[in-house]
Amino acid sequence: MMTRTVIVLIALVLLLLIVAGCISAPRAPAPIQATVTPTDVRPHYLVGVDADFPPFASKDSGGNISGFDIDAARWIAERKGFEVEFVGVPWEDAISLLEAGKIDMIASGMTITEKRQARVNFSQPYYTVNMSIAAREGSTITMQDLYDGRLRIGGQSGTNEVDWVNDTLIKTGKMPAFNLSLYPDSTTLTRDLQNRTIDASVIQSAGQQRAISGGGLVIIGTIPSQEKIAIAVRKTDPELLAAIDDGLLQLMKDPYWEQLKQKYGLE
Predict the structure, then answer these.
(1) What residues pair up with 228 in beta bridges, in sequence order?
(2) Section 173-179 average pLDDT
(3) Full-model pTM
(4) Of the candidates 228, 260, 227, 234, which has an alpha carbon nearest to the alpha carbon of residue 74?
C-alpha cells in the first residue's frame, strides 16, 4: 500500500513538472524604439560673392569672407530661420552658377540691370551707388578725356561699369575696343592702373574708394548712374525671394542697419 502511494505521488510530481514546462512565462514587451524627429532642421543656402570687392565682401589671408553684405545676409538668415554659407565666385560667372544650381543667391554689391533681370529675380534694392573713375595722383586726365574716348580704361569683367564703357564709348565709335582692358577682380585692375598699364579705372563708387586707398591714386570724377544694389536669386525660388525681401525690410528698420553702414563706411 505504501509503495503504491509513493508511486502515485511521484507520478503527480512528474505531471506537474511537465505541465509547468509547457506553460511559457509571458515574455517581457520589446523596448519601444523612440522616433527621433529633428526639431530645428534649417535650410542651408550657398551665397555666391565677389570675394575681392570691399566693403561688400572680401576674403582675408585665412580664407574668411567678411563685409557689409556678409553681415547683412547673416542677420537676415538668423531671423528667417535658414543657414548661409559664403563662397567666392568669378563675378562674370556668378549668374550662370546661380542658374545651374551651384549657388542659391548672389549677395555682393550686385546692381539691378535689365540684362540681369532677364535671368534672375532681384530682391528689393537696399543701397544705391554711382560709377567712379580713378587715375594716378598728379595725372592731368579729366572726365572729358573719358567721355571723348581718349583713355585706356580698365574695368572688371561682368560688371555694369564695363557695360557702360561698351555702350557709351565703344559702340558709339568714340573709343576703340582695344582701349578697354578687362580684369577678374578690382585688385588686379587697380594694380595695373598704378603700373601705368591703363590710364583710368571704372569701379562702383563704394568699391573704388577702398580700391585706391593708399595707392597713389585719386578719384577724378563720378558718373551719376544711380544703380540699385540687391540680392539675386533664381527665378524658380519665389519663397526664398519672399523671405529675403521680408528680412531686408526688418533689417533696414532695425538700428543694426545704421551700425552696419557706419562699420563699413557706407553713407
Answers:
(1) 128
(2) 97
(3) 0.81
(4) 260
